[in-house]
Every structure is written in C-alpha cells, then in structure tokens.
Write a structure and sequence with these properties.
This protein is mainly alpha-helical. The radius of gyration is 16 Å and the shape is globular. Helix 1 runs antiparallel to helix 2. The termini are far apart. A two-stranded antiparallel sheet has the order 1-2.
Length: about 100
C-alpha cells in the first residue's frame, strides 16, 4: 500500500480522558481508555447489566475484523471480501444484542 507499510506506527492516546464521550441531554460523561480489553472492561463497569451484550458485540466485531483484510493495513494487499456484516447496520446489530 503506497510503499509505506513499514512506516506506519500507531499513536495511542494514554490519557484516560483522551476518549471522552459526553451526552449532554442525558448529563452523562464516559471516559473510555485505548485498547480493546481496557475499553470493553470500562464499558462493562459503566453498564454492568449489559455485560453479555458487550461481550457478544466485541466478539462479533473481532470476527468481522478477522474476515475483512481491508481493516488491517498490514494485510491490505487485495480487494476486500464482502461478509454478511457488510449489509447490516450498526443499529440492527445492537438491537439484536441488547
């Protein structure tokens, strides 16, 4: 990909308030850390009744990631393969999990 694959390095925001989501209408603020496991754990602490749905969502997201090489710049050398998830909205996924 453009011959710069080895030059790409992710930059993670370490400050716990770097990923802050503010929902003014609900007077809610959620600080979510970087890293999948940390992010998932924090979501579970905010929404303990939704632990199962959170696990199912992240498992589904992991499967989609693994099936779609276009989501990984290190493997993105060929045309993407379409999966069933390409034709489902996020709203439909969340409604089926929660």
């Amino acid at each position: 990909m453009l011959g710069i694959r080895d030059e790409i390095e992710p930059v993670f925001l370490a400050d716990e308030k770097s990923n802050r989501y503010v929902f003014e209408q609900d007077h809610a603020v959620y600080d979510l850390p970087s890293g999948v496991n940390e992010f998932k754990g924090k979501l579970k602490s905010y929404f303990p009744k939704e632990n199962n749905g959170i696990d199912l969502y992240f498992e589904r997201a992991r499967k989609v990631y693994e099936q779609n090489r276009a989501l990984d710049f290190r493997k993105n050398q060929e045309s993407p393969v379409f999966t069933d998830e390409d034709f489902v909205s996020l709203s439909q996924v969340l409604d089926s999990l929660f």
